[in-house]
Specification:
This protein is mostly helical. It has eleven helices and no strands.
Length: 181
């Protein structure tokens, strides 16, 4: 019986450690880019479940599954030659660093969010663009006034089932964690 209690306690504490070991980095970068840290946490949970070395099906890397193209855009925008060099010579290494990955992922999220700022479905549209690309969001809203769509109406219009599930899952987790405080 004691071994069961010890094992359960260990599993609980490991689980808590695993899910929250990047909280400080997430909070730091979320503040810089004015994104709710619980949203960034929820996005990382969905993307990789906090596996910093994760590689996606089409070459996305790290916690926030950032593409090499996005990393190179970020490096160019920073104007720092060291980041440009690293993004060209070892982009996987750059994106496998949790701090850089979260920084670049938050930068990209904010860049996408600029397109949808102030809309009722701002967060859902930004998440959909993060997952499937902004051109898909435009496609899903082309025959309506996108500035007036509610979040639920937009999610219903998402034409890729996996993206619809991705957006819904992140929003649900985000709202659950935001309610806990």
């Amino acid at each position: 019986m004691i071994l069961v209690v010890i094992a359960a306690s260990g599993a609980y504490f490991f689980h808590d450690y695993w899910e929250h070991r990047f909280d400080e980095l997430i909070a730091q970068q979320a503040r810089i880019y004015r994104i709710d840290e619980k949203l960034v946490w929820s996005l990382i949970y969905e993307e990789t479940y906090f596996r910093s070395g994760a590689i996606g099906d089409v070459g996305e890397v790290g916690l926030m599954q950032v593409t090499p193209l996005v990393a190179r855009e970020w490096a160019k925008v920073t104007g720092l030659s060291e980041f440009e060099r690293q993004s060209n010579e070892d982009v996987v290494g750059l994106l496998s660093d949790p701090k850089r990955n979260i920084q670049i992922g938050c930068w990209y999220y904010e860049r996408l969010r600029e397109r949808y700022r102030g809309r009722p479905a701002e967060t859902a549209m930004t998440l959909a663009a993060y997952n499937a690309g902004p051109s898909r969001v435009e496609e899903w809203t082309k025959d309506t006034d996108a500035a007036e769509l509610t979040e639920a109406e937009f999610i219903e219009r998402i034409g890729i089932a996996s993206t619809r599930a991705y957006v819904s899952s992140i929003l649900t987790r985000y709202r659950e964690t935001a309610a806990v405080k």
